[in-house]
Design brief:
There is one protein chain. The protein has a 7-stranded antiparallel β-sheet, with helices on one face. The longest helix has 22 residues. Strand 3 and strand 4 form a beta hairpin. It is 34% helix and 31% strand. It has a single domain, classed as Rbstp2229 like protein (TATA-Binding Protein), CATH 3.30.310.120.
């Protein structure tokens, strides 16, 4: 199931260009917010909301973030930068439907924080910037 979702930075986006440092920061913010939710409800929510470990990898001569899970319902997916204006989230061939759901959540979160245009895995488009 190789599928891709794309977050496209536009003129009205909060950031002019995307890089792995920005992605790492935003993903860590996502993890921190789910940790706070877990503390409020007295439950280990961050483990359920983001069951992945993050590592840097080279994919097709391009630096990328590789998100891998130890949970049996999830496997992995990749977040990479394409030409400094596009963030590409790729579901690998053996990614699960659980990965697709988590990747969709992460896509929406990133696009909202960046104020960008998001093309989901099903090719639908969501706009998170002021038009």
């Amino acid at each position: 199931m190789v599928q891709q979702a794309t977050i496209q930075l536009v003129d009205k986006s909060k950031y002019e260009e995307a890089n792995l440092e920005l992605l790492n920061t935003l993903i860590n913010d996502y993890i921190q917010s789910s940790t706070k939710i877990g503390q409020q409800v007295d439950w280990n929510y961050e483990r359920a909301s983001f069951p992945y470990s993050i590592s840097n990898k080279k994919l097709d001569d391009q630096d990328a973030l590789y998100l891998q899970s130890e949970d049996s319902r999830y496997k992995h997916f990749v977040v990479s930068i394409q030409d400094n204006k596009n963030i590409v989230i790729t579901l690998l061939p053996n990614s699960t439907y659980g990965d697709k759901g988590k990747a969709n959540e992460l896509c929406r979160y990133l696009a909202q924080k960046i104020e960008a245009k998001l093309e989901l895995f099903n090719k639908r488009i969501m706009y998170f910037y002021k038009r």
